[in-house]
Amino acid sequence: MLEDQSILAELERYQEQGLKIGLTLSGPKQSETLYKALKITRKGRPLFDCVQATWNLLETSVGEVLMTAHQNGMGVLVKEALANGRLTDKNVNAAFQINWQSSSKWRPTAYIS
């Protein structure tokens, strides 16, 4: 979709009418796709106003590019922040019984506001 000039032109027309253009990501190529989307501009301004991506303590791969998007003025929405419930006390799976106090692996290193 990001290479299809007719789709990008249509999104630009919507943006010119005052609509915000968002991008939703999922899967293993979130970072690659967002880096590509950040480079798309129309008339000197970014085409995409916001992005929604999967990010949580179990899936942090897109974190760096989300920070870049935020720093470039893009709205950032995180989906699956609790890993579909796996990061809640409702999860009784022994593999997820984490000692949160002693495990630095589970402490986020960057916060996006």
Structure description:
This protein is an alpha/beta fold and 113 residues long. It has one domain (5-106). The protein is built from three helices and five strands, in the order αβαβββαβ. It has helices spanning 5-16, 30-38, 63-71; strands spanning 22-24, 41-42, 45-46, 50-54, 75-79. It has a three-stranded parallel beta sheet with strand order 1-4-5, with helices on one face. It has a two-stranded antiparallel ribbon with strand order 2-3. α2 (30-38) runs parallel beside α3 (63-71). The chain is elongated and about 50 Å long. Mean pLDDT is 87; it is low at 108-113.
Gap between N and C termini: 28 Å
Net shape? elongated
Instruction: Estimate nothing, just give the exact number of structural domains.
Output: 1
Task: Strand order, main sheet: write it out.
Answer: 1-4-5
What structural class results from the helix and strand content?
alpha/beta
Number of strands: 5
